[in-house]
Amino acid sequence: MTPSEQSPAPAARPLTGKEPLFIVLNKGSGRGDAQVLQDTIRTILNEAGRRYELMPVGDPSRLTDLARQAVKRAQDEQGVVIAAGGDGTLNAVASTVLGQGVPFGILPQGTFNYFGRTYGISQETEVALRGFLQGTIRPVQVGLLNGRLFLVNASLGLYPQLLEDREAYKQRYGRRRWVALWSGLVTLWRQPRQLGLQLEFEGKSRSLRSPTLVVGNNKLQLEHIGIENDELDRNRLIAMAARPVGTLALYGLLVRGLLSRMGDAENVISFAFDKLTVGVRGRRRVKVAMDGEISWMDTPLEFKVASDRLPLVVPADPELLDRS
């Protein structure tokens, strides 16, 4: 049983502004220089007189172990755990924090920063950290896929392939948004395989052929592509799938997404749920993406809202909001 499935979970403590900070920093992720990031953190926290410990990690395989150490220290010393890095880093540390009664902060370094921007947390480290020092706790919804946490989205089929190809292009050409767009165009040109999906939700069963299924948990990302997201406020997730279409139609869907009009497309199916089981015809294991990280999972897949809320530290000052 994962921490998020245990009940009841300990409640996060209200912030006093004096808690020690345990900062798990992935030196290999994000947009900039890891040393500059560490120097910025030290400068701001030293000026603020805040007690902290930087816990940098260079080997991604050690990230979860270091996060567990940070959680234990935060529990023992009434502290806060902060994740500094890209989407995968935020996911890994949040997965360890969830259900442990420890406040969670982020210093996002990813390309799009949908999770942070949704809650007014800037991509600029100095702004984010100063906002954190004036912060308050906001319990936020997270999703689970086969018991594993996701903050923004989880998917199978074409979308994981898009992410894999995008990462390869970024390694070659740099972490720029136009690189992500170009890699997507190339991936769609290869005519993705159609999946035979069996969906079970809210007492209903539905068969569907689609190149991809994406489950969203982020209002800002859904808003940007033009999908209704009000159900996220009702403890539900949003599923999206494309009907079987050719390459040109997929390009059309991409353009609609860029114009925030995907919800109007006749080739897109979307619906809300609190629990969704997905079987994949002929597949015992499928490639999935969770907050940009690729892995393999056994089928059937189970998507649901976590019973625990993540105690996220958000800026108390509305002037610090960064939703651009």
Task: Describe this structure as you would to a colleague.
- This is Lipid kinase YegS.
- With 324 residues, this protein is of the alpha+beta class.
- It has two domains: 140 residues, Rossmann fold (3-Layer(aba) Sandwich), CATH 3.40.50.10330; 121 residues, Tumour Suppressor Smad4.
- The chain contains nine helices and 18 strands.
- α2 crosses α3 and α6 crosses α7.
TL;DR?
The chain has 324 residues and is an alpha+beta fold. It contains 9 helices and 18 strands.
Strands ordered across the widest β-sheet: 7-6-17-14-9-10
Q: Percent of residues in beta strands? A: 25-35%
CATH fold-level label of the largest domain: Rossmann fold
Please, what is the CATH homologous superfamily of the largest domain?
Answer: Probable inorganic polyphosphate/atp-NAD kinase, domain 1
- Major sheet, described briefly? 6 strands, antiparallel
Uncertain residue segments: 1-7, 246-263, 320-324
Number of strands: 18
- Top CATH class of the largest domain: Alpha Beta
Shape: globular
**Gap between N and C termini, in Å?**
38 Å
Features:
Rossmann fold; single chain; alpha+beta; 31% strand; six-stranded antiparallel beta sheet; disordered N terminus; 324 residues; Tumour Suppressor Smad4; disordered C terminus
Layout of secondary structure:
Blueprint: E1 21-26, H1 34-48, E2 52-57, H2 63-77, E3 80-85, H3 87-97, E4 104-108, H4 114-118, H5 125-133, E5 135-140, E6 143-145, E7 148-150, E8 153-157, H6 158-173, H7 177-189, E9 195-201, E10 204-210, E11 212-216, H8 219-225, E12 237-242, H9 247-258, E13 268-273, E14 275-280, E15 285-290, E16 293-298, E17 301-305, E18 310-315
Protein name: Lipid kinase YegS
Enzyme class: transferase
GO molecular function: kinase activity
